[in-house]
C-alpha cells in the first residue's frame, strides 16, 4: 500500500477548521449555530479592493507574476511599514506569499531539523507546533500566562534558550489569547537575544492593526540589532477581511532570502495575480475601512468580555488585541475545556474552541472569536449562560 513518509504522522491540524466543518454540518441538519469558533472577520472585503482585482482580471493579468510577487506590491508593503512605523525596510527582501501561514511553513521548514530546538508560544497558533514536529525539531513551549496579561515574559523566554535553539516564534497581538506584549518586555527580550546570536526570530504580526485601549503596536522591525535574523510575518487576511484571498507577505533576512525565493519557485510559482492587484489597492487606497472595522471589533470586545464575566464560574481578562477572548473556565466545574467547547457546540449551538487546541497551557480556557455580529454575540452569551446553569 502507498503511504506518506513518517513526517506526515507528526503533522497536526488546526481544530478551528474541524469545528467550522462540524458547525456547518449541524447547521445543515437545521440546527441554529452561532459560530464564535473560526478566526476570520465577518466583514466583506472593502469594495475598492474587490474592484481592483476584477479590473486586473479584465485587464488581462492572467499569467505568472515574479515568484516573490509583483514589484509594486512589494514596494507598497515597504511604504506601508514606513507610513505606520517610520521604519525603512528593503522592498527587495519582501516576499509575497499565498497567506500568512505559508511564511510560517517556509521558516520552520527551513530552520527545523532533528537535534535543534524551536521555541513557540503556548497557548499559541497550533500550526507552529505542528510544523515544528513535522521537521523533527524539538518543540519547546514558551508558557503564555493569564497573570502576565497573556504577554511573553522576556525572562522566562530567554531562560529557555539553549545552544540548540535555532528559532524563536513570537506573536503579538496574539491568537488565541488577545494578549499584547508590552514594549518594555520586547525591549528586554531583544536585549537578551543579543547574547544569543545563533537564534533566528519569526515574529508573527498578522494582528498588528487590531489593538484597543490606545495600545500601540511594537514591531520587531524597530530593532536594527536583530534585523539580520528576523523573519517578519504579516498579511492581508485579517486587516482587510481577506482570509479567502490567500494573500500574505514577509520580510526575510539576507541569509534566508535565496532559500525562500527558491521555495516559492518550487512550490507555488507565484501568488494569484488578480489577488495581488487587490492587495495593492488595499495598501495604497483609503485606510478608513480598517479603522471602522477595528472600532466595530472594539464594541464587540466589550460586549463579549462583560457578557463572559457575568457567566457562572467564568472569568475573562480584557484582551488588548486581535479579535479573541480567552476566558478562564476553571470555575465552571468543567475540568476539560475541550469537553466544554464540544458540549457548547452540540448542546447549546455555540461554536468555540477548547484552549488545549492551542497547547498544554490552554487547559482551563476556551477561545471565542468575536468576529461576529453583536446580535450573534448576545445570542451566544445567552445560550452559554443557560447551558452553564442547567449543567450545574
Ligand atoms: N498567524 C496567526 C497568529 C493567525 O491567527 C493566523 C490565522 O488565523 C495566521 C497567522 C494565518 O493567516 P493566513 O490566513 O493569512 O494564512
Automatic annotation (TrEMBL):
<dbReference type="Pfam" id="PF00155">
    <property type="entry name" value="Aminotran_1_2"/>
</dbReference>
<keyword id="KW-0032">Aminotransferase</keyword>
<comment type="similarity">
    <text>Belongs to the class-I pyridoxal-phosphate-dependent aminotransferase family.</text>
</comment>
<protein>
    <recommendedName>
        <fullName>aspartate transaminase</fullName>
        <ecNumber>2.6.1.1</ecNumber>
    </recommendedName>
</protein>
<dbReference type="GO" id="GO:0030170">
    <property type="term" value="F:pyridoxal phosphate binding"/>
</dbReference>
<dbReference type="GO" id="GO:0004069">
    <property type="term" value="F:L-aspartate:2-oxoglutarate aminotransferase activity"/>
</dbReference>
<dbReference type="InterPro" id="IPR015422">
    <property type="entry name" value="PyrdxlP-dep_Trfase_small"/>
</dbReference>
<dbReference type="InterPro" id="IPR015424">
    <property type="entry name" value="PyrdxlP-dep_Trfase"/>
</dbReference>
<keyword id="KW-0663">Pyridoxal phosphate</keyword>
<dbReference type="GO" id="GO:0006520">
    <property type="term" value="P:amino acid metabolic process"/>
</dbReference>
<dbReference type="InterPro" id="IPR015421">
    <property type="entry name" value="PyrdxlP-dep_Trfase_major"/>
</dbReference>
<feature type="domain" description="Aminotransferase class I/classII large">
    <location>
        <begin position="32"/>
        <end position="383"/>
    </location>
</feature>
<dbReference type="InterPro" id="IPR004839">
    <property type="entry name" value="Aminotransferase_I/II_large"/>
</dbReference>
<keyword id="KW-0808">Transferase</keyword>
<dbReference type="InterPro" id="IPR050596">
    <property type="entry name" value="AspAT/PAT-like"/>
</dbReference>
